[in-house]
């Protein structure tokens, strides 16, 4: 007899955790009043927003094609290295951003402390990715997703974000 999948509330816990962490990160960005440069190559006009959406979709498509090629070649070690590097780089950049926001809120203008904390967090993520491969990695991915969503929601103009989601 085949087992069928049944929806349970427990499956929504990672989604809820990511959303709650994203809200916390968004609150940090709002409260710290940090100013960010534009991450989109085109201005937020109707035509520019289409260009921004196309730009981000092409970036994702190139990354997905690269991963698909590695899957077809059965290069699981390269996939681990590629995704591990991406997770480590994103964790370093986001932890630098959010630690800077926390230090700004605490009125501690120390770039060195933010850099040291970010390096420590990135080393822990790197260890979790390449050595442990346990459930800790699942939590890292969930929290990085929430933090990335909050950051991109903060820096990508609204019309561009809507068109990215539509593509």
| Helix and strand composition category | mainly alpha
Query: Roughly what is the average pLDDT, rounded to an integer?
Result: 88
Q: Strand tally, please? A: 0
The succession of helices and strands, N to C, reads: HHHHHH
Shape: globular
Task: Indicate the topology.
Layout: H1 13-32, H2 46-72, H3 76-105, H4 111-132, H5 135-155, H6 158-166
Helix pairs in contact: 1-3, 1-5, 2-6, 3-4, 3-5
Summed up:
The protein has helices at 13-32, 46-72, 76-105, 111-132, 135-155, 158-166. Helices cover 77% and strands 0% of the residues. The chain contains 6 helices and no strands.
Describe this structure in words.
The chain is mainly α and 167 residues long. It has one domain. The chain has 6 helices and no strands. The longest helix has 30 residues.
Question: Could you name the key traits of this structure?
Answer:
77% helix; 167 residues; 6 helices; mainly alpha
């Amino acid at each position: 007899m085949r087992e069928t999948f049944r929806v349970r509330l427990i499956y929504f816990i990672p989604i809820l955790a990511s959303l709650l962490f994203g809200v916390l990160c968004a609150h940090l960005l709002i409260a710290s009043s940090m100013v960010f440069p534009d991450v989109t190559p085109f201005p937020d006009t109707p035509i520019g927003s289409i260009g921004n959406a196309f730009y981000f979709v092409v970036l994702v498509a190139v990354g997905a094609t690269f991963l698909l090629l590695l899957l077809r070649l059965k290069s699981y070690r390269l996939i681990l290295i590629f995704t591990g590097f991406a997770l480590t780089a994103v964790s370093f950049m986001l932890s630098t951003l959010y630690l800077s926001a926390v230090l700004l809120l605490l009125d501690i203008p120390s770039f060195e402390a933010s850099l040291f904390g970010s390096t420590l967090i990135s080393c822990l993520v790197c260890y979790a990715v390449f050595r442990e491969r346990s459930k800790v990695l699942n939590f890292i991915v969930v929290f990085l997703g929430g933090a990335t969503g909050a950051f991109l929601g903060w820096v990508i103009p609204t019309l561009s974000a809507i068109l990215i989601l539509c593509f």
